[in-house]
Each structure stands twice: as C-alpha cells, then as structure tokens.
Amino acid sequence: MANLPLLDVPIGDYGADEPAIVAYRDQGTRRALALDNRGPLRFDADGKIDPSILEAYDRYGFYILEGVFGPTELDEIERDVADMLDRCPVAKDADFDRHGRAALGSGLQARNVGWVRPLSDPLGGTEAAHGRHQAKMIEPEAPQGAPEHVVQIILGSLQFSEACLRVYGHPGLLKLTEAINGPDFTPFNEAVWIKHPGLGGSVAWHQDAWTHWDSPDLDSHTHGYNFMLQLYGCNAANGLWVVPGSHRVGKVDIRALVDEAGSDRLLDAVPVICAPGDVCINSRQTVHGSFANTSPDPRVTINFGFHRRASVQGVTSGGVHNPISIYDDAYIRERSKAIVYAIDARAQHVPHEERYVYQPFAGQEDDYRFGPETLERLRDYNLRDLGI
Known about the structure:
By secondary structure, this protein is of the alpha+beta class.
C-alpha cells in the first residue's frame, strides 16, 4: 500500500487525563464489541437487505458492516486519498501545493479543504454549525514540531477521486439506502475525513441535524445518515464515538450529558470499532463525536450520506454544508446526478457486480455514463449539498 503524505511527529498523550482516558477507551471498546450491531452486508432470498441489519440499526442508530471493501479496492482508494493530500495547499490559506502546483480546489467556489490546529477542538462550545457542538472537548498539548494546522477534511470528494466515486455507487450500500430511505432517496454530502496520528483534532459531541427537531413527523430517521468506510480501520483512540439509541429521543441536551459525566467522556458512549474495509452506517440524529488523536494510528474515513426525499423536498436550509437554498425538484435532481454517474463508474470498473438501478433516473442511464469528462462535470457539485 502507498504511504499517505502524513507528518512524522512525536506521539503525545492527554497529560494528567491520560490514565482516565485509557480506561475509558478500554471500557468503551468492551461495551461496543458486546453490542449485536455488526456483521457482513447480508441479503435475504429475494435479494433484499437482511431484516436483522435494519432492526439493529433502528435500535442503536449505528451498525458496522464488515468486510464490504477488499484489499484491491482499498489500495485504489488509498492511492486517490494520497493524491488528494499531496495536492492540498502547503499551508492553510496557501494557493499552491508542496510541489508549487495550483492546490486542490483552486478555482472552485465551494469549500473543499478544512483545517484544524493539532489536537484542538475548534467547534465545541461555539455557535458554529447552528450551535450543535454544545460543549468543548479536552485539548491535549500539541507535540513538539507540530505544524500550525493539519488537513482534517476534504469536501466534495467525488470530483477529485474516481475511487471515491465508485465507492458511492456500491450496489449493496445503495440497496441498504433504499431499504431505509425509499427508492427516491437523495444525496446529503461526501467527504474524506483525516485523523493524522498524533495531530488529528477532535469533533465535539453533537447531533448532525438542525431542521426537523420540532416537526410533528419527526422519527428516528428523519435527518438521514452517513456511511463511513474505514480505509485503515478505526479504534477507540482515533475513531468516532456514538451514544447508542440517542437517535430516538429527539434533540439532546449534550451540555447536561457532559455535566453528568463530569468530563467530555460521556457515560453511555461507545467507540466505532472497524477493520479496514468495514463500513459504519450512523444516523445523523445520534449523539456522536471524536477525541483528539494522540495515537500513532491514522484514520481515513470515506464519508457519504443520504436522505429521504420527503425530508428535503421543498425545505429551505443550508449554512453548514452548502449555501442556504430552497431544495426544490430542480435542485434535488441536479445534485442527484452524482449518484447515477457513480453507479456507472462502478459498473464499468467492477462488471461482475449487480448494477443498482436508481429509480429517479431509471431508463435515463445512457445520459449519465462515466467517462474522462465526468469529474469535470461534477466540478463544484457540492455547492448543492442537502444539509438539514
């Protein structure tokens, strides 16, 4: 496997909090592995998603699909991620990459590269992102020689990576999407998350959603979900943590949970434990977050999500993932073209798989064939993300 262009720095720890967080990781890992919410992507005799997967996802708000992607495809994804990182600006606000070329995202309107100060929590306790990150995480001291900022996220990843586009068109994952959100499901957004070893920042506890908490039609799946493909796997030190079942109780007072725990180590949370190639599906309504990565293990997550059409149809929203917009038919259709391109890209690359048929574009597939010009056609497509 190719090596990602990651910085080599001394690995630090949480200082005086280190013993407590080590114990918390160990306890959380045991609780996570005791849950019955992991297994391969299974289908019944009719080719539909095994009902036990849907039941466990509905109960816990997240599920680990084991072994969805194998070594060959992981190698392809890693090469594309390495290329994206190599093309990122040499520093925050720089226009060029480390080779002097125009940096990734140059000339685009949408934000594509997000940065974080090493081991910091830039969002916790602020009003950013509709104030959903209610409490600040502990910020360990950055190691000696750490840069001022590191790349944390690459947004709009489908326009930069054929491998990520092919992941997006995976027929089994799209079947699962249909089973949860119906055949007219819509996109949410796509990104590559990078937790640098010894440097990766935290993401404070939050629920992703903001639009429908007061809706009389609110249920456990109103605000959609994310798939999270783990390139190298993830563990309690570098991975996401989730409060099981928190997607079922509406908007949560996270500040009260922190006060109850006496720290940012929420009492009922468990880590997402994955091997390379596993995919976690996580409801956007769960309380979830991640700690600063003081471990020597990188985490790279290929992230992409979907909504029910009824949750976005006619809604005016945005301000986090995309400009505030009216999600009308034309907006949704334009954004959904990425799904059809992804399906064809995967079908060409993995011809032995059963091709998924995306019903909103059924019979129109010839108009959306993947080719050399496709990534350019997707240029700035994430200006039309569907954030709710």
